[in-house]
Amino acid sequence: MIRRPEVLDHTTTPDASMIVHRRDELQQLARAFQGLENGRPVNPVFLTGPSGVGKSLLAEAVTDRLVRGTSDELAVDIASVNCWTTRSRYEVTFEVARQLVGGARLHHDSTPRLDLLDRLQSTTDRHDPTSQRIVVLDEVDVVDTDVLYDLADLPSTSLLLVSNEARSFLGSLDPRIESRLSVGQEVRLEPYTADELVRILEKRVEYGLEHDVISQRQLERIARHADGDARKAISTLREAAEAAQGRSQTITNTLIDEAIPEARERLRQENLAKLDPHQQVLFDIVDEYGPVSPGTLQELYEDRMGDDAKTQRTTRRSAKKMVYYDLLVARGEGPSREYAVATT
Ligand SMILES: Nc1ncnc2c1ncn2[C@@H]1O[C@H](COP(=O)(O)OP(=O)(O)OP(=O)(O)O)[C@@H](O)[C@H]1O
Ligand SMILES: [Mg+2]
């Protein structure tokens, strides 16, 4: 049934032969970075769109392309940080320095943040037009925004900011940094159509499964239930194939119908495992007391965490991201907003 499990694994970067669509968007992104060829950093570039539409995939594709080189005149170095797991000002700066300067002389926690920034500054030559850097901040909407000031000031450095909502993210920033970022270009990815998802699935079937184990109609069925999200579609295919493995010759409709909620649940468990201790506490509180208002959530969280508690603003951003990751649901707007745990 399954020939190559990694082809059905949404966490591994697919081989170029399995990437379809997004040609125009990749072109748009490449154009946004074309200015690097003039030896100057470009304005921040935003890559936005809902979950599973290929943002992380495209960020990697465009930076790969730039590293491999558009011309001999330009050398591009990349640092790529996922802010969902690396978000504090220090952690992000450390990670960027580790990737761009090299880790050997940097010591986590003992090299001060300002030294890291000095190191980043001193290893670039702002007068050398042939050497440029790009810092990719994926899931930037949960980053400690202070780090954006630091990074935006580095010489020969351009930013690629990947998030689900550029606008709402910008709205929560200090006006000084907001004005610097709002000049940036935005490349927006729309949810995939069911037909586009079928095409993505066909490639996974071709490279990952035995021949003739799933029909076109069944791929359409999976695609229709994936809400434009390629991760959901690929995970549903994997779930159905795993269930069929060793049990039947082909993937049946019943297995697909069962795989749809199971894939959602598995993705939710994966997201739950990525929560940091603070977010875990927030999730547990909503689970125990929900539905809760943002104010009550913050109070209960502060009761539990004491002086270690993060600000209301951080809580709000974490809760929003948990809604995005299908862990919580938000009901009502403004003063009547409440969070509850998402159920299948
Ligand atoms: N056009 C495509 N062709 C092939 N595979 C794709 C395509 N778009 C997305 N995928 C696959 O779907 C999954 C989700 O894509 P990706 O991780 O890039 O989404 P995302 O927009 O970054 O989502 P999130 O906001 O949740 O991080 C990945 O496994 C990716 O390889
Ligand atoms: Mg992503």
Automatic annotation (TrEMBL):
Instruction: List keywords of the entry alphabetically.
Output: ATP-binding, DNA replication, Nucleotide-binding
Gene Ontology MF annotations: ATP binding
- Does this UniProt record's set of keywords contain Nucleotide-binding? yes
Which terms under GO biological process does the entry name? DNA replication
- InterPro entries under this entry? AAA+_ATPase, AAA_16, Cdc6_lid, ORC1/CDC6, P-loop_NTPase
SUPFAM superfamilies reported in the protein's UniProt record: P-loop containing nucleoside triphosphate hydrolases
The protein in question is named Cdc6/Cdc18 family protein
